[in-house]
Amino acid sequence: MVDNLKFNEKGLIPAIVQDESTGQVLMLGYMDEEALRRTLSSGEVWFYSRSRQKLWLKGETSGNRIKVTSVWKDCDGDTLLVIGQPSGPVCHTGNKTCFFEQLAQEET
Question: Could you give the CA distance from residue 17 to residue 21 in angstroms, rounded to a whole number?
């Protein structure tokens, strides 16, 4: 399973989470091998918290979990795409997605 994946020097790989029904990008997290194994075996998204230095189940505190539909690797094997069904807002701010603030474009 992880043989063809390229984890970084800290043993992590970025994982983009996308809503199955809307196609909206919900969040970006990092997985280590154990988080990926748990994600694939449990059907719920697990990450490795870089700040807390431990595994965490998405939604373990808020209850807003993500049911996994499929997991894909990119062509280089250094990024994952997790397709899933969120049970509520994904962002810790209460927003549906973590990507809700657009940057202003500079005039050219």
Answer: 12
Concatenated DSSP letters of 37-95: HHHHHHSB-EEEETTTTEEEETTTTTS--EEEEEEEE-TTSS-EEEEEEESS--STTS-
What is the full per-residue pLDDT of the chain (108 aa) written as tens digits?
Answer: 677 899 999 999 999 999 999 999 999 999 999 999 999 999 999 999 999 999 999 999 999 999 999 999 999 999 999 999 999 999 999 999 999 999 988 877
For the domain made up of 15-86, give the CATH fold. Ubiquitin-like (UB roll) (3.10.20)
The rounded distance, in Å, linking the Cα atoms of 81 and 75 is 11
Whole-model pTM: value is 0.91
Residues in contact with 10: Cβ distance below 8 Å, sequence separation at least 6, in sequence order: 50
Where do the domains of the chain lie?
15-86
